[in-house]
């Protein structure tokens, strides 16, 4: 599903949020495969890092597209 620190546990809400992220990443990967099939190369770059203020963070991405 997703990599975690071995001894980390998630609350039910955190698990639900991570499941939502996983579903969206799977949809993103499908869209990337379709874009590649249409004739472009796609690279995902970190556009920003979101911080919550308590030490947690998440990378935000943007596509860089180059026609083949």
Description:
With 68 residues, the protein is α+β, with helices and mostly antiparallel strands. The protein has one domain (12-67). The protein is 40% helix and 34% strand. The protein has one helix and two strands, in the order H-E-E. The protein has a two-stranded antiparallel ribbon. A hairpin with a 5-residue loop joins strand 1 and strand 2 (57-67). The radius of gyration is 15 Å and the shape is elongated. The model has no long low-confidence stretch (mean pLDDT 91).
| Quaternary | single chain
Given the structure, what is the number of helices?
Answer: 1
Instruction: Give the termini separation.
Output: 32 Å
Tell me how many strands there are.
2
Biggest sheet overview: 2 strands, antiparallel
What share of the residues lie within helices?
A: 25-40%
Provide the domain count: 1
Q: For the residues shown, what is the average pLDDT?
A: 91
Main sheet: strand order? 1-2
Q: In what range is the share of β-strand residues?
A: 25-35%
Shape: elongated
**Could you tell me the radius of gyration in angstroms?**
15 Å
Q: Which residues sit in consecutive blocks of at least 5 with pLDDT less than 50?
A: none
Broad structural category = alpha+beta
Q: Could you spell the SSE succession in H and E letters? A: HEE
In short:
This protein is of the alpha+beta class and 68 residues long. The chain is 40% helix and 34% strand.
Chart the SSEs and their pairings.
Blueprint lengths: L11 H27 L1 E12 L5 E11 L1
Antiparallel strand pairs: 1-2
């Amino acid at each position: 599903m997703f990599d975690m620190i071995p001894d980390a546990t998630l609350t039910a809400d955190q698990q639900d949020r991570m499941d939502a992220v996983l579903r969206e990443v799977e949809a993103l990967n499908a869209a990337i495969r379709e874009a590649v099939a249409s004739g472009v190369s796609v690279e995902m770059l970190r556009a920003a890092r979101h911080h919550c203020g308590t030490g947690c963070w998440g990378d935000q991405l943007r596509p860089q597209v180059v026609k083949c």
